[in-house]
Amino acid sequence: MEEGPEPQEWVEKSTEELHHGHHPSAMLLQAITAATLAVLAALGSLLSGHAANQAILAQTRAVDQWAYYQSKGTRGHLYEVGAELVGALSESQGTASSDHINKALIRFQGMSQKYDREKEEIKQEAEHLEEEARHEFHMHHRYALGVAAFQIGIVLASVSILVPYRALYLLSLVAGGLGFLLLIFGLLS
């Protein structure tokens, strides 16, 4: 039985045939394109990771603000209940007109109103942080799509070095351009 060529012989023969059909400057341009797209993909990846981290931090701060909001609500409710208890006890003991009881009721109501006012500021801050988190996540999404487009461009540029189809190289440029646009849109948003 006849044996075929050794694997390294096949690779050498294929490489030699390939280089005879390709112009060296075109191969260099394709390699530079793949390298440039790789650098842009790395940049996009850094931007994507940063935006994702900022989104997580903003969401965490929003959750903290909502917990603070709830604690203020609980304190306000405690003063409301305290006022109701003082009022109910004073009525049951027949001392509804006592100055001491009225002062306590006014103080409880004032504290309850104070906590309601403080809750509103905290609520606005929590909503602002949630919006910031959504914005950062939106940026992360655009950067991630840009990185994916760069990776497709890298693959197409690399394959275009091996396969003499100009369309592959042109598609790599289109993918790289799309990735670049997505990065720019992410930065501008």
Draw up the topology in text.
Blueprint: H1 7-21, H2 24-93, H3 99-162, H4 166-188
Helix pairs in contact: 2-3, 2-4, 3-4
In short:
With 189 residues, this protein is mostly helical. It has helices at 7-21, 24-93, 99-162, 166-188.
Descriptive account of the structure:
The chain has one domain (24-188). The longest helix is centred in the first third of the chain and has 70 residues, at 24-93. Helix 2 packs antiparallel against helix 3 (99-162), helix 2 packs parallel to helix 4 and helix 3 (99-162) packs antiparallel against helix 4 (166-188). The protein has 189 residues and is mainly alpha-helical. The chain has 4 helices and no strands. It is rod-shaped, with a radius of gyration of 34 Å.
Task: Give short descriptive properties of this protein.
189 residues, rod-shaped, 4 helices, mainly alpha, 91% helix
Separation, N- and C-terminal Cα atoms: 67 Å
Characterize the quaternary organization of these chains: single chain
In total, the number of strands is 0
Helix and strand composition category: mainly alpha
Strand content: under 5%
Describe the sheet with the most strands. Answer: none
Mean pLDDT: 86
- Cα gyration radius (Å): 34 Å
Counted by DSSP, the helix tally is: 4
Domain module tally:
1
What's the SSE pattern? Answer: HHHH
Low-confidence stretches are: none
Helical proportion, percent range: over 70%
Shape: rod-shaped
